[in-house]
């Protein structure tokens, strides 16, 4: 999606500091490789009347953890019919109302020289407001309640540490290739040139690194390869387009404990067949709300409470080898668990997970008893 959706009126009163650019220092090869493999292409999709899905643009995104949580721009999640129907076809709508896309395809390149290929479809988890200083969103790759795990992700930096002339590097998938093919992922070195601020708060950071249409939602990295911003828009002037990224600290404030270091803890693990020792596929794993005991899922008659779903905080299904990850992080607290799988006795464990908020992640291993006939 084009990264110019932020209305320049938002920054009309901004205090702008301009500085000349300097040669950026080389980022380390290990950090560069990780950044490239942690950057994905995001395609919003529109469902047609025949049930098919059609791509209606593309942007970039950054993988934040192994659970496939992807940070991107909120405007990559939406579309308007005025954009899709610029010629005013009377058989189609043509208004400017923002509409949420029906799905998002995530493309990933094993070889960064090549065009990315389809990895999975994502769900929208959280979104700020497109066209504003909170033009940020979280997507997650979840297929039939299974979290799609990733092997590479970026560590969050601190955008408050950025200064004029700080080295920055922009990674993303620009939209400058022929219509029948995507460009490979691109890497643009540069420096911080200026800040757009209002009321003592930095709203956006200007950079000499190129931010092209399609790069929006990608990664702005510091010299250590940490994520410090999300390339979002450009302002025409001074002989060309000047690119800006939103500070990563804005995402930390918006999405709280869902982000790494935000106080929430990723929870995953494995469900095992007690008879064979093998993983159980397609098991339903349920984490109850903090403090809820498993007995509270049942009525006094012993029957399952029809309202029990309201007492579930998170749920997931196991995939290969019986492994799973909860789609969201769990805030500090004590949680009971329930596991249901065809051919096995239900498993209930009170207070199975205890989270203090400092754990990097928690993995549990639970064993199911097969039903014998």
* Count of spatially separate domains: 2
How does the major sheet shape up? Answer: 6 strands, antiparallel, barrel
Helical proportion, percent range: under 10%
Overall, the morphology is globular
SS class: mainly beta
CATH class of the largest domain: Mainly Beta
User: Strand fraction band?
Assistant: 35-45%
Radius of gyration: 23 Å
Q: CATH topology of the largest domain, what is it called?
A: Thrombin, subunit H
**Per CATH, which architecture of the largest domain?**
Beta Barrel
Distance between the termini: 57 Å
Quick check: average pLDDT?
A: 84
Order of helices and strands: HEEEEEHEEEEEEEEEEEHEEEEEEE
- State the total count of DSSP E strands: 23
Count the DSSP helices.
Answer: 3
Sheet with the most strands: spatial strand order: 1-3-4-9-8-7
Summarize the structure.
This protein is mainly beta. The chain is built from three helices and 23 strands.
Word description of this protein:
The longest helix has 9 residues, at 29-37. Mean pLDDT is 84; it is low at 2-25. This protein is mainly β and 373 residues long. It folds into two domains: 8-258, Thrombin, subunit H; 267-368, Immunoglobulin-like, CATH 2.60.40. β3 and β4 (69-72) form a beta hairpin. The protein has three helices and 23 strands. 6% of the residues lie in helices and 39% in strands. The strands form five sheets. It has a six-stranded antiparallel beta barrel. The chain has a six-stranded antiparallel β-barrel with strand order 11-12-13-16-15-14. A four-stranded antiparallel sheet has the order 19-18-21-22, with no helix packed on it. It is globular and about 75 Å long.
